[in-house]
Amino acid sequence: MQKEKIDDLLCRVEKPGQYLGSEINSVHKVVNDDTIRYCACFPDIYEIGMSHLGTQILYHLINTIENVFCERVFAPASDLEKLMREKKIALFALESRHALNNFDFLGFTLQYELSYTNILNMLDLAGVPIYSKDRSEKDPLVIVGGPCAYNCEPIADFVDIVILGEAEEIIVEVLETYKNHKKSGYSKQKFLEKIASFKGVYIPCLYEVDYFSNGKIEKVYSINEHAPSLVNKRIIADLENAFYPDKLIVPYVNIVHNRVMLEIFRGCSRGCRFCQAGMVYRPVREKSVDKLCELAGKLLASTGYEEISLSSLSSSDYSSLQELVSKLIENHEEDRVGISLPSLRLDNITFEIIKEIQKVRKTGLTFAPEAGSQRLRDVINKGITEEALIDAVRKAFELGWSTVKLYFMIGLPTESIEDVEAIRDLGFKVAAEYRKVDKEKRGKGLKVTLSVSTFIPKPFTPFQWEAQDDMNTTVEKQQLLKHLINHRSITYNYHDVKTSFLEGVFARGDRRLAKVIELAVKKGCKFDGWREHFDFEKWMSAFDECQIDPLFYMRQREYDEALPWDHIDIGVTKEFLRRENEKAKKEQITPDCREICSTCGIAAKYKGGDC
Amino acid sequence: MLRIRCRFSKKDDMVYVSHLDLVKFFGRAMRRANVPIAYSQGFNPHPIMSFATALGIGVASDAEYMDIQLDREIEAELFVKTVNDTLPKGLRILACKYIDKSEKSLMSIVARSVYAIEIELEKIMSKENIEKEIDGFLKQDEIIYRKERKKKNKGKRYKKIIEVDIRQSMCNIEVLSIAGKKVIIKMILAAGSENNLKPEVVITKLNEMTGVSIVEDSAKVARLELLKKHEKQYVSLMDVAK
After folding, report:
1. How many angstroms separate the CA atoms of A314 and A384, rounded?
2. Taking a C-beta distance cutoff of 8 angstroms, is the pair A80, A9 a contact?
3. pLDDT in tens, A50-83
4. CA pair distance A577, A591, nearest whole angstrom
5. Rounded Cα gap, residues A45 and A254, in angstroms
6. Where along chain B do its domains lie?
7. Exposed, middle or buried: residue B193 (CB in 10 Å: 0-12, 13-18, 19+)?
8. What interface predicted TM-score (ipTM) does this complex get?
9. Hey, what CATH topology would domain B110-236 get?
10. Mean pLDDT on A464-471
């Protein structure tokens, strides 16, 4: 097996430390004829990919399986890619520097719709045919998972295996089955048929889609007796005892989240109606304080990190947060370990905790009211009142914070101009609150950032049927806010409208989009989530040449219209989503699942939840 | 206050790790090794370490130095062993020694750096001929290097070219060995905060000003030693009392 000769390239690229593959806690195994080779592929650059906890969990998990060697690869930065193409060096896995076409599995994680072009570009750079149907028995199997896998129809033709839900158990089952098939006359078709019936596995090539003449979907159906008509997601029932690595790879170069990441629970009981994660990761499952303290100790010792981040969808909903934080401080204060808590809701208890952990550092505080008006917050079921928010902000100012960031969305269903204007009003109220606080107490230099993104309806949410604002409407709202927010302490950020447009198309897209993606890649599209690379004109010409109208995917859907993802079952029923969408229109709140069960269907289908 | 001075090597893949990343790396390595390293005071405590010079990306070295401050004493041999156990291939503590708190910082005492540079010739030459060319090169009173400096003024970026005489920064150049087109050259160059010359610059000048034609980008640089001045002599940075 040829090792790619990359030393000469490393001297000529930026941050060569990211391509070495020998980082602390990376795994290196001897490769022989029997080794099953898996490459965890992240379709973005190293500093993004290495910040992704899921990849690190799977990497260490897969490497615990005997005779299976899991390596990593990331989308090479443009400078390296250019050199690789010049010197005809195939995309290689970091650990062994072997070209990816030597592998059994290429596992891509689907975190973001706009990374689809990078997947195709990476396959191309590896010399692997992009279409599943064009790959022979000798080519690697392309396996995908992650949040976008729930509707991966736009890239379904490129992938062989989709993992739906949490992978810790199913990936082992798939690899063990593969191992057995390899021993006795492997056939790709037979292997795919075998695993098609596993809970959590979706094999796109065993399904077909019929369309009406108006372009809408007539039905999605199984064409193989082994493929179930409805594919279920997989979850880990017992999170407490599920695999979690006791070491994490420590990069040589600085990355976005360069710290220990400790997952404290999965799922979210809040039920925000725009949030896909809140629906697809149900039910809520926590790890115990003891387990987390044990893991924290091992992870800090094996990595040498000076900071630990407690991660989840909504950290303050962890039932024993105060106890956990106190214990972690007690165990590691002497070693000067910092604790960070992303995704916090700022209520009273949380403030007590933050006071404790932020004794040293006062980084900015982030709030996510998501909508400016109470009416619209009720529509999206974001159970936060203006009073509570202002109260929290005042407390933060009194404790010495002066940098506050507020997240909002525009384009939410039922939104009026008044709702948009309310974003400005809330921002101004926050700034006014700062002035009310005693000068002695508050920090210097107020800085309020209003970060306004564009709402994109996502599959498996109550808003999956709703229309996405067209680009003109979005621009009008963005400009209105820009005009209204004229305050020296307030910064206003908004998202690029074209990027959101494309994300919206792929989020609710179907299989017909595959050829558009293929063509866009041929035209040179990649890193679409990066402003300096994004080329909207190329995308529009690709849609045009494929005779596909992207606006078709932005429109409102009727409840009885077949959706591209109807053959996927996340446990939460379509009936519940519909009910929630109707309640949204009536501005009715649905309480947190821990207060009263809203019968979303998950509890009936999956055991192990605390919801 | 306890200070420990270490000499370490940085080679193989580790040559691609930048100086700034290396500093961060050693901080974490000390934590993994459970070394009682001292931390700075303040809001953002960081481990107290200081280095002699920054090594350029791609340059290997057998002579990197750092001073580390410790909270309590541990046996020097144990220090070397426990730290080395946590280091990846390519990084290795070679020696260490407790030094007095009055000892001057590494950065302020470095004066000379010794390099071995492998180059590839465009055409085969004899050792004698190369040496003749080098002699002629070193006989000049002045060797001007035009240095590009990126500057910023009122937000505008521009490049300024300054001329530097590098002759006085070259202390010695000799041919170590020759095998076909591959030649290994040893250089002693000024190093440190007052005067610092990169070996790549000398290679460029040799190529430009002498009959030695060198294949572009072929130079592989390794640092052999860093020296300080002590009573008219140049000695190792490890050469300290106590």
Report:
1. 14
2. yes
3. 999 999 999 999 999 999 999 999 999 999 999 9
4. 15
5. 12
6. 2-103, 110-236
7. exposed
8. 0.90
9. Alpha-Beta Plaits (3.30.70)
10. 98
Residue range A409-448, pLDDT digits in tens: 999 999 999 999 999 999 999 999 999 999 888 888 999 9
CA distance B28 to chain A (A): 4
Structure tokens at A483: 């005009």
- Rounded to a whole number of angstroms, the distance from the CA of A176 to the nearest CA of chain B is 32
Residue keyed to tokens 């800090």: A300
Structure tokens at A392: 């929290």
The identity of residue B66, as a single letter, is M
The candidate with the shortest Cα–Cα distance to A151, out of A76, A33, A233, is: A233
Interface probe, candidates B10, B14, B23, B25, chain A, greatest A C-beta count within 10 A: B25
Domains of chain A: 7-232 (3.40.50.280)
DSSP A160-208: SEEE-B--TTHHHHHHHHHHHHHHS---HHHHHHHHHTSTTEE-GGGEE
CA dihedral A117, A118, A123, A125 (to 10 degrees): 120
* Contact between residue A45 and residue A74 where contact means Cβ atoms under 8 Å apart: yes
Instruction: Give A301→chain B minimum CA distance, Å.
Output: 6
Q: Which residue has the tokens 């972690």?
A: A328
- Just give the CATH number of B2-103: 3.30.70.580
Question: What six digits make up the tokens of B135?
Answer: 């002699």
Who contacts A425 (Cβ-Cβ below 8 Å, separation ≥6)? Answer: A372
Q: Measure the CA–CA gap between A192 and B235, rounded to whole angstroms.
A: 68
The residue of chain B nearest to residue A336, with distances taken between CA atoms, is B45
Token pair of B88 as six digits: 């990846």
